[in-house]
């Protein structure tokens, strides 16, 4: 028995570490929710849960495309300013008497154009993704401010989009169910289609993909285009949610967006951004914001915790990767 069980232990330990490494963020989400509830029972009130899901849903849409940009080994720091520009474009057109359909389509089209520009500059012209998206983000921020002359634009009627955001199916907001379906489709694309495989391969070895005939430049254009569209859709939804256009709204989503994607990369595919990890991290951040508000934490404390959470996630991923390698070698020996 000793000779049989001894070589089995590394394999069992390896499986245990792999399971913990893949799902630790979900466990952290559940633990955080109940930890806040222990201090403030209203954390689990139906109204508060609805608020958490609604705010997390909009953020999840905003960073869905960003997840794939970073998974491909690139960066996009213009996503939040694209959302702000789409937000102000929608509000500005509504203020001029346009209907919601036209205003929303124009806001989304603006995001698509900026995403396409980012993709062409990075994917085809091979410019630095960081410098490129800093520049386009700056242009978007300036344009958003110019639309409202530096001030917000009030929206008197949020229309059908406002009704959609307020709607529930039982206790669950309809927008949360829509986002869950959207992420399920995105997961299928990421895991089952060559599109998803090429994204991760591009991060590993872009030149090798080019050598075998994969049009990497088109792939990069596409992921930046998706990022721009997702950010602009979130901006339009924020216009209906806040009943206003806010030119400075992008700054509040910068840290949260990047944290969600990088922290989400510490789950499922350890060290590699993925949509399920991003969705879980977005929920974790929403719980942190809500719980911190109920406990009376000032904003700076919540920002410190978010930064610490990101660093802890990266440290855990590195440590877990080393442990997994060690168990794998032990299992093979």
TrEMBL record:
Keywords: Cell inner membrane, Cell membrane, Membrane, Transmembrane, Transmembrane helix, Transport. The chain crosses the membrane at residues 49-70, 101-123, 130-149, 169-189, 219-242, 248-268, 275-298. It is found in: Cell membrane. One of its GO terms (cellular component) is plasma membrane. One of its GO terms (molecular function) is transmembrane transporter activity. Its main location: membrane. It is a multi-pass membrane protein. Coiled coil: none annotated. This is Ribose import permease protein RbsC. It comes from Starkeya nomas. The gene is rbsC_6.
């Amino acid at each position: 028995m000793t000779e049989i069980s001894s070589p089995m232990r590394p394999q069992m330990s390896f499986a245990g570490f792999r399971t913990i490494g893949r799902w630790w963020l979900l466990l952290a989400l559940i633990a955080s929710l109940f930890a806040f509830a222990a201090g403030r029972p209203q954390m689990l009130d139906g109204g508060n849960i609805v608020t958490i899901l609604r705010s997390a849903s909009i953020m999840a849409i905003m960073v869905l495309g960003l997840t794939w940009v970073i998974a491909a080994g690139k960066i996009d720091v213009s996503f939040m300013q694209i959302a702000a520009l789409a937000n102000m474009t929608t509000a500005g057109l509504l203020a001029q008497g346009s209907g919601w359909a036209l205003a929303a389509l124009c806001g989304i089209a603006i995001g698509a154009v900026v995403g396409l520009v980012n993709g062409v500059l990075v994917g085809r012209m091979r410019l630095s993704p960081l410098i490129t998206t800093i520049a386009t983000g700056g242009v978007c921020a300036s344009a958003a401010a110019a639309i409202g002359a530096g001030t917000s634009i009030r929206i008197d009627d949020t229309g059908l989009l406002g009704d959609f955001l307020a709607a529930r199916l039982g206790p669950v907001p309809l927008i949360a169910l829509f986002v869950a379906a959207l992420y399920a489709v995105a997961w299928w694309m990421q895991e089952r289609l060559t599109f998803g495989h090429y994204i991760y391969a591009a991060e590993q070895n872009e030149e090798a993909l080019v050598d075998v005939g994969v049009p990497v430049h088109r792939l990069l254009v596409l992921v930046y285009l998706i990022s721009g569209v997702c950010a602009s859709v979130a901006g339009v939804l924020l216009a209906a949610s806040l009943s206003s256009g806010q030119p400075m709204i992008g700054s509040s989503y910068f840290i949260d967006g990047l944290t969600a994607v990088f922290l989400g990369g510490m789950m499922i595919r350890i060290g590699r951004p993925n949509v399920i990890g991003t969705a879980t991290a977005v929920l974790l951040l929403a719980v942190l914001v809500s719980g911190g508000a109920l406990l009376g934490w000032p904003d700076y404390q919540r920002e410190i915790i978010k930064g610490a959470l990101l660093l802890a996630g990266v440290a855990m991923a590195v440590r877990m990767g080393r442990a997994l390698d060690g168990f794998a070698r032990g299992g093979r020996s």
